[in-house]
Amino acid sequence: MHLYNVLRNEQITPSTQLLTLKNDSLGRPFGFQPGQYGAISFRHNQKPTAARCFSIVSSPTEQDTLQFSIRIQGHYTKAIQDLQAGDPVQVFGPFGGFVFNTTRDQNVIMPCRRYWQ
Fold it and tell me: Domain range for residue 40?
């Protein structure tokens, strides 16, 4: 488990929140790779929440800062909108094995599908 504080919490579309967390503790950074995800937990209405998993959208080169792009749908994700700068957040992980192995995968082509016209 890693302790972070909310740096920013921004609504980037009508249904999407960008949660930016900063590692302000002296502990080791989260240490994730592209393609991995983390579980977050926080306090809402004076009670700890369950940990829920979200994809990490920030660069792994800046391990002290984590960003999660979260689609707001249910009670849990709506509670995320209430987080303010400075609020503590617990981060668990990283999880997931969908990562690029530079030693093994040297000749890889990754097609890009265009979703807009």
Answer: 2-95
